[in-house]
Amino acid sequence: MQTYSPKSGEALENEEMLLVLQQALTKKRVLIVDRHAPARESVRLMLGTLGVTQVHGAGNSAEVIRQVKANRFDIILSDFILDDGRDGQQLLEELRHAHLIAPGTVYIIVTGERTYTNVVALAELAPDDYLIKPFTADQLQARLVRATYKKHLLRRIYEKIESGDLDEAIAACDRVINQHPAYMYDAYRFKGELLLQLERIEEAEALFRKVLEGRMAPWVQMGLATALRDRGALEEAALLAEQVLASAPDFLAAYDFLAAVQERRGLLENAQEVLQRAAEASPHNTLRQRMVGDIAARNEDLPAAEKAYGKVLERSKGSSLRCVDDFANLARTMAERGNIEASRKLIGELKRELRGDKEAELAALTHESLCLAAEGAPEKARACAEQAIALQQIVEEDFANRGKPLSQRLSVDLAHACYASGLKDEGEKIMRQAVAENHEDQQLIHQASRVFEKTNQPEGNTLLEQINRQLNELSNRGQAAARAGDLAGAAELHTQAAEQAPNIRNLIEAANSLYLLMDRRGWDATLAASAHDYLERAQRKDRKHPKVLATRQLAHSVARKYGIDISA
């Protein structure tokens, strides 16, 4: 295909460039999302007049998920109002969160003029553009050309981010800033986020302060707030987030950020209040409703937790974001409030909805055991718990083979069922493993503490402290060996820690130590395979964890040093 690279400052209306871009549209695969078949057909005909022939349609969110899993789309045109009370903005968040569409996919929301202002204001994960109904084929073409041109200019950034080569992604940002000033703020935004991900905090802070001199926008202020948070200036970061919300009260990402900062400051009630304000502004956002439920549970505000977890199930129906934990969270909260009948009814719904799902079966057995224990039927509770223990081993093995993590909150629930039904040794074994693998998860640690409290296990907190000491001991020894220059010894200690307790810190340290050893000794295919495995396992736990991203960059740097291509 012919390519055209406009000079800096060149207008998009240049006839030669427009012609090339319009011709490029004819090669694109497009998905139209609208609950009304006639509306889909109307847009399909418009696209046909533009020469676009690879057009698919979807009438609901479930069909969208099925189609994006089967095809790679260049463009998605989604109506704002979808089925089941969901909207095109929520669909975009779901697709991005689940990594079902590539960063280079153009996503445009179609909306009525009356709702346009609200759509834009609430968009934290912004689409590439908006189309206001009614529109003509020429207007549709103009929006598509503009969006695809922008994606074309930023494509190197997307490619390097996808491959994990973040240093090269930053270099690509710099090229856009220098060569295409019309898109420099897009590049600045990417560059700032990448610097934060690589924990180059001082550089990120300097960049956002520089951008603020020319553009006062919420994303710039929030970038600076993130840099302040990451260097430990929590109070200053919270103040800046509050300033953003004062001037842009519908910028919802600022609520999430402020809540997380207040949680780190120990201000849990304030964090809950902030999240509830955001949830009221975006009631269809299931991820945020989960966050409200989690923080309310930590605050032991059980009515608020039950309400939020209930909304998660209600709003995620038919969604790929729905998971077994959603049922378990609500069932656990109902039982804690003493509503055993409602908890059991919910577990029945889980079994019907996710029939044949082994993890769902495990959750059902676990919570049935807890219900029986609460009703004073210890023998029946023990029988259910024993079945759950046996099933957990099967599920863990199956999930490990598929590279899928088992819900650790469910493991804590199972430990609770064991303690409650007299299987103390089994409970302690399961709890020890769950805590060791998730010692950074404050929600899970709080859940474990509550289990010890409810089952009269006064030694429980001592167990948590013991696990933490053991985890830190191996990690500290590995770090000491690295500081002393013994990279082989450090790698041995860190990989030992990762095998004993594969939490995200240990997995990252194991991968890091192996890459650093290869950086000194040379590339080794066996060590590289082990390092890659540890990194992949860490990524499955938290894809966006800064240290995961930094380790991916280290992998690329070491591979590049020895002429190895790991971008595939």
CATH superfamily of the domain at 15-153: Response regulator
CATH topology of the domain at 15-153: Rossmann fold
Distance, first to last CA: 23 Å
The share of residues in extended strands comes to under 5%
Output the strand order for the largest sheet.
2-1-3-4-5
Q: Specify the overall morphology.
A: globular
Low-confidence stretches are: 1-13
In short:
By secondary structure, this protein is mainly alpha-helical. The chain contains 28 helices and five strands. A five-stranded parallel β-sheet has the order 2-1-3-4-5, sandwiched between helices.
Describe the structure in your own words.
- By secondary structure, the chain is mostly helical.
- Among the domains are: about 15-155, Rossmann fold (3-Layer(aba) Sandwich); about 325-460, Serine Threonine Protein Phosphatase 5, Tetratricopeptide repeat; about 470-560, Tetratricopeptide repeat domain (Serine Threonine Protein Phosphatase 5, Tetratricopeptide repeat, Alpha Horseshoe).
- It is built from 28 helices and five strands.
- It has helices spanning about 15-25, 35-50, 60-70, 90-95, 115-120, 135-155, 155-165, 165-180, 185-195, 200-215, 220-230, 235-245, 255-265, 270-280, 285-300, 300-315, 325-335, 340-355, 360-375, 380-400, 410-420, 425-435, 440-455, 460-485, 485-500, 505-520, 525-540, 545-560; strands spanning about 30-35, 55-60, 75-80, 105-110, 130-135.
- Strands 2-1-3-4-5 form a five-stranded parallel beta sheet, with helices on both faces.
- Helix 12 runs antiparallel to helix 13 (about 255-265), helix 18 packs antiparallel against helix 19 and helix 25 (about 485-500) packs antiparallel against helix 26 (about 505-520).
- The longest helix is centred in the last third of the chain and has 25 residues, at about 380-400.
- It is globular, with a radius of gyration of 26 Å.
- The two termini are about 25 Å apart.
- Mean pLDDT is about 90; it is low at about 1-15.
